[in-house]
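Ticket 4471: requesting a sanity check on a complex prediction with adenosine-5'-triphosphate. Repro inputs:
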Amino acid sequence: MLGGTFDPIHLGHLVAASEALHQLELDQVVFVPAGRPWQKSVYSDGEDRFLMTTLGVMGHARFSTSRVELDRRGPTYTVDTLSTMRDFWGEETKLFFITGGDTLAGLSTWHEVHKLAGVAELVAVTRPGSDVGSIAREDTWPNIHVLDIPLLAVSGTDVRRRVASGRPIDFLVPPEVVSYIRDHGLYVEAASA
Ligand code: ATP
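Returned structure tokens:
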């Protein structure tokens, strides 16, 4: 599982998923757009984020998207999502929760974080500006995989700011997503933080 706001999906997400798939020999990566991200106050409509994420992954046979968080009422908690996935896939399926180094830094503040380790193994990928190795060493998560991946200094925030200021986003997000953003007039008003 790769959870996030995906506002919008970008190459950083796709490379992280592809590297996790390859390095850990996973069967598939499910991208899960957050319904109501409890740690972020500004985000685009969930349906736009879901459609963009689906458009972004559709060229890859082992990537898919899930509506599990969008269709759940109330705030989005990763522990609930992983429990739903555990129920769906069954005990025999090994679950991995993929996250960027920046997210890992705040992990200890997550809702019921102690339960996560019992449901999934944590995968922390390198991201510019975050020292995944040292965070992972300090962390108490029992089963953590630290993956070195190509460092891509791209974020949803940067993509939104680029659109708002008329700069290109080609090659930072998949071409289908570039078209969706343009056709739906997303991010033109102001660069949401
Ligand atoms: P925003 O700038 O809107 O906060 P973001 O791109 O940083 O967005 P999310 O869409 O919430 O963040 O990211 C989902 C997951 O993907 C997080 O675990 C995040 O750390 C990871 N991720 C995002 N961008 C990258 C990147 N460039 N390299 C590695 N991991 C990334």
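Notes from triage: The helical segments are 11-23, 46-57, 78-89, 101-105, 113-119, 132-138, 156-164, 175-183. Leaving this open until the requester confirms.
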